[in-house]
């Protein structure tokens, strides 16, 4: 009986973890219109681009996008 109860508890715990696990964040388009053509501030607020590179902040990513033909989105906030 103890074995059965243990299995039920383990299964219930694992099922609860799977159900409440957060969904993977979706990439988001950077809000480049807020930065215009002005130089970026030296704020360290890294974002991970969909190209696999870490940018110092959203403005830096937008600056690089102005130089490219293919646009990079934000994969997630933080280092890649």
TrEMBL record:
Listed Pfam families: Kazal_1
A molecular function (GO) term: serine-type endopeptidase inhibitor activity
Keywords: Disulfide bond, Protease inhibitor, Secreted, Serine protease inhibitor, Signal
Sections of the chain in a coiled coil: none
Compartment list: Secreted
Stretch forming the signal peptide: 1-20
GO cellular component: extracellular region
InterPro entries per UniProt: Kazal_dom (IPR002350), Kazal_dom_sf (IPR036058), Prot_inh_Kazal-m (IPR001239)
Domain named Kazal-like: residues: 26-80
Official protein name in the record: Kazal-like domain-containing protein
Native source species: Xenopus laevis (African clawed frog)
UniProt keyword Disulfide bond present: yes
Source lineage: Eukaryota, Metazoa, Chordata, Craniata, Vertebrata
UniProt xrefs under SUPFAM superfamilies: Kazal-type serine protease inhibitors (SSF100895)
């Amino acid at each position: 009986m103890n074995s059965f109860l243990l299995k039920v508890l383990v299964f219930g715990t694992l099922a609860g973890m799977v159900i409440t696990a957060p969904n993977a964040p979706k990439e988001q388009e950077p809000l480049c219109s807020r930065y215009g053509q002005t130089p970026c501030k030296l704020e360290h607020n890294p974002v991970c681009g969909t190209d696999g590179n870490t940018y110092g902040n959203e403005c830096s990513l937008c600056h690089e996008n102005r130089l490219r033909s293919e646009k990079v989105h934000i994969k997630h906030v933080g280092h890649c």
